[in-house]
Design brief:
mainly beta
């Protein structure tokens, strides 16, 4: 199978105001994080996060 080394997919990541992002967080391209949200350490953010939400765990889920 041929593999193309120069293929990049560019999608914006939008991070709102007053967002707390813990250590070792991976944010997937194309995701937006709402204002005042908290992302726990080690989370893979693969979906949009609502404003003032607390997310964490694997897979990502809303804690509060």
């Amino acid at each position: 199978m041929p593999y193309q080394h120069n293929v990049y997919i560019h999608k914006p990541v939008v991070i709102g105001r007053n967002v707390w992002i813990g250590a070792n967080v991976l944010i997937i391209p194309g995701v937006s994080i709402g204002d005042g949200a908290i992302v726990a350490a080690g989370t893979v953010v693969n979906a949009n996060v609502k404003p003032l939400a607390i997310v964490g765990n694997q897979p990502m889920r809303t804690i509060k």
